[in-house]
User: Which sequence fits this backbone?
């Protein structure tokens, strides 16, 4: 498959700008920032539980590589196509190394620090409001697409969106205000599963250590 097809399958859109969460009019710096933010969300170190994390991360690298080259970006903007034969999107490229070259000082701790700064910020609020509109109020899609957001963040995200609705900044979409109870219950089960797994991963080493001491 080509890059646009990969984007559609992995991110639900074949629009390269939409995949990075930036508008068509974005500057080079804004495109780079969009790539940074989105790649943090799917970086294999950040999302080890996502079986598609590596594929998403590699695809994001190709997206940014296309939009960061003026000539290729111009062709895409005008014709909506990508040169699949170019060195920019060729297979076999080490996209993790490419990311490290762009952001050489970024470590796993940097990612954690970014999350702490991003969560609760005005930037996050604007991103969530955009996702609400893009996802037509569907909480499953919003939570899956939101940056630095896990299943247990739903109450916080819902509060932000509800406040925006009450303040007139967002329309009251039925998918959000009258969500199916089964969908809510499914997310609660997902949160419980995540918590149980975290508990198991924490307790197992302690139990193993206790057994060894005996």
Assistant:
């Amino acid at each position: 498959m080509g890059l646009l097809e990969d984007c559609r399958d992995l991110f639900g859109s074949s629009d390269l700008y939409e995949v990075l969460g930036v508008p068509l009019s974005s500057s080079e710096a804004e495109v780079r920032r969009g790539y940074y933010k989105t790649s943090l969300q799917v970086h294999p170190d950040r999302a080890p539980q996502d079986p598609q994390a590596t594929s998403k991360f590699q695809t994001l690298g190709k997206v940014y590589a296309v939009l960061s080259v003026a000539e290729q970006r111009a062709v895409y903007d005008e014709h909506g196509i990508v040169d699949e034969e170019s060195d920019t999107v060729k297979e076999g490229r080490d996209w993790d190394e490419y990311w490290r070259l762009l952001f050489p000082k970024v470590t796993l701790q940097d990612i954690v620090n970014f999350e702490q700064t991003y969560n609760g910020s005005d930037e996050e609020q604007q991103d969530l409001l955009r996702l609400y509109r893009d996802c037509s109020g569907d909480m499953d899609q919003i939570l899956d697409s939101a940056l630095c957001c896990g299943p247990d963040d739903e109450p916080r995200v819902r509060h932000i969106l509800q406040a925006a609705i009450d303040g007139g900044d967002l329309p009251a979409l039925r998918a959000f205000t009258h969500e199916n109870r089964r969908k809510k219950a499914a997310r609660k089960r997902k949160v419980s599963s995540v918590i149980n797994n975290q508990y198991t991963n924490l307790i197992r080493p302690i139990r193993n250590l206790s057994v060894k001491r005996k």
Remarks:
- The first helix runs from residue 3 to 11.
